[in-house]
């Protein structure tokens, strides 16, 4: 047996990071002594990706291929599975990853042999260790398998609260020279919790891990961080700043153990808004970037998103983070219901609150999210590659599609030149500065 773990490439100008999910699967295969390789398509050009993949499978005699699938690569993975099976009939094809975890039945398709929707690595590990034995597969939770009578989907696995293996970080080391986040440099990834206890309408992170929020022991998280050579760490929890006691404990451990790293993490706006006293501690522990889901500048849109915050909370979050020297990276979701005035208000909000780092996504009802149920009949497209927050997937209510795109472009045109200038000047992290210098 020899397994190729593949991360399909998709268009991204803003980041090129390690395939952490596959690195954990690689760690499980390493422990089992099963030969494998992680094939990260992000490290190669777009052109001829499938030709390279086929050639690799043939030349190096892989017996199984496992795809990690996101919402925007779902069609491509289904198509590649079908084509690979046609060319290599004895090849075992597996599908897993975030999209398969939430919508596993969508991958019970031609060319696929197994779909893994286990929340950790244990089902995958046991299945590979058994040599894809059908009897073993029948007993594994979180696994769909093709049988003579069609597909059989085993019950989902229980939620996980920790990793059971160490990741194989070799892919990160190999591609470190190409690793980057726009304007921020290279980052290694660490995950300290699973899912999110909130339920914003557009978000499908909250559906992960069976919809159950769990936290890893901080001692394990710190051990992961200390084992990394990287200076900058992105804590990729869907919401790292959630529990006050845990955040304090994390910072205390970092300081006590003398960990000298720079941290970036996601947060909801209500945490920095309600805990300004904690932010200097975060700064001392090495936090610099907080990615805040501000989402919108008006209460009505925030309510429609079920965000449980408000404009005033957003403003307090930005203010408090700035006062502590922390960079607030404002993440916005532009609604299909936005009017011309809403676009103007959003820009006014950004200017008034002196936000420098901003990211704009377009409201997308991902399958599995609450919004999908609400908008499934209004979807303009079902093409997976359009599910990336960059495309209009619901007809804008107050303008043409073209004007909507144009206004999103104008949002970027109005905000990014200054950010670029400040990055080039080396002052993009100076939260006291306001102007172009
Ligand atoms: S948007 Fe953030 S806070 Fe809301 S459900 Fe998703 S991860 Fe949780």
From TrEMBL:
UniProt domain Radical SAM core: residue ranges: 182-397
One term under GO cellular component: cytosol
B12-binding domain residues: 1-138
Cofactor section: [4Fe-4S] cluster
Gene3D superfamilies: Cobalamin-binding domain, tm_1862 like domain
Pfam families: B12-binding, Radical_SAM
Record-linked PANTHER family: ANAEROBIC MAGNESIUM-PROTOPORPHYRIN IX MONOMETHYL ESTER CYCLASE-RELATED, BLL1977 PROTEIN
Protein name: Cobalamin B12-binding domain-containing protein
